[in-house]
Give the backbone structure.
Amino acid sequence: MRVIGIIAEFNPFHKGHEYLIERAREAVGDPRAIVMTVMSGPFVQRGTPSILPKNIRAKQALKSGADLVIEIPFTFACAPSERFARGAVETLYRTGVVTDLAFGVDCEDPDLIRTLSEIEPDDETIRNCLSDGMNYPAARAEGMIAAFKAQAPEAADCEDMIRETLRMPNSILALDYLRAVKDVGADSRFKIHMIPRKPGYSATSSREIYLGGRSIAALPDKLIDMIPTNALAVMLAGLSNKEYTFPDTDRYADDLISEAVKSDLSGYAYMTDGLDGYIKNTVSGMRTFSYEDLRSALQTKHFTMPRIMRAMSSALVGQSAEYVANEKHPRYIRVLGFNRDGRYCLKVMSKCARLPLIHNCSDAKELYASDPALKAQFELDINAGEVQGKYLGIPRGSQWSDCPIITK
């Protein structure tokens, strides 16, 4: 049985994701290969709530080529790329059934990504760049370039190409996926497929249209070229049936500001390097409270916006710095949805997975007493779901009755 693991956010699912699934099956040479996607839940890697509920995004994927969708726990989903990649890759590895890992790359030369993934960044260069006011992703890129040049002096001839590659978020994720595969011991099991991305499909563009329209009737014409027909139908049906609403981003901003003003931020995740004081000082002087106003006020060259949003969202959800420092592993496999082939895959997983399978909240609760680490991680997921649900018009507590999506 060939099982292809794909790491994604589907925020929202678009034609680029559909293309990746199709090309992944082509890459393994098996049109019937099972595609298992591991997906972020209520919050995404850039630190903000996803624009659609996770069950809707899972259904979009199942209607567009995936067979089984599982969830990346919040503590790894809303995290820097290294932690995001580690949590996602380890979750796939612990299923015990994944044979291949496929992901998209922006780089024209996938071999360059593979080569760079073997290089440890030069720590002194990183420290110097940070001291000069550079943000961490840029400093890390310079550290990698310095280390690469030290190992291979001829690399100086392609320094600009390397720097350009390391500016692309998807290239950084690809590097960290490869590193994570090695770190979790999956390099002998996973066959890697790096698939060049097809230009023209962007989750950012899809989100901007979705968030800017606020009209269900106008969405089909605007999104039909970006989102597969089946996935678009799932999105529109959920809105029409009032399963959720368009995101209330201003309410989210208001809650972020309130939390920052009233709380001691220093104990929350990612509030290092003076970020806690910077946020508190900035928001305390704000007079308007829209989401765009907040982002504009917080913009700075010293911290990336994803870093700021991850820190502020961690405060809102209740994720401490101590927890992130000590928790290195996913503790369960949360099943979000499956089709017939996915059901068969789950049956096999029930015998060989090295983490407990969670189909609904009651499954997790039964394990609370015997597994405190699982309890702590799952409760963060619940908190994140409640926070996101508030901005999507989802009744509080409704996730306790959620079950996996099942499609034909």
Summary: The chain has a mean pLDDT of 93.
